[in-house]
Give the backbone structure.
Amino acid sequence: MANLKLPYPLRQPSKLERLQNLARLDRSRGRGNVIHTVQRWLLYVSLFVAGFVVAKLQSLLVLAS
């Protein structure tokens, strides 16, 4: 009797687990691409900003020398 599988966990799922479950549901519905797209755009923006900062530093170094 003790090894009966419950259809739900005994403890409350944490916030992270709830988010992961929501993401899994979204992916199965085909809407999980939104999160992925946002992550990709964040990556592109951060790369652009990093390149801009490096270019600025290089121009400052050229001016200083």
Summary: The mean pLDDT is 79. The radius of gyration is 23 Å. The first helix runs from residue 15 to 29.
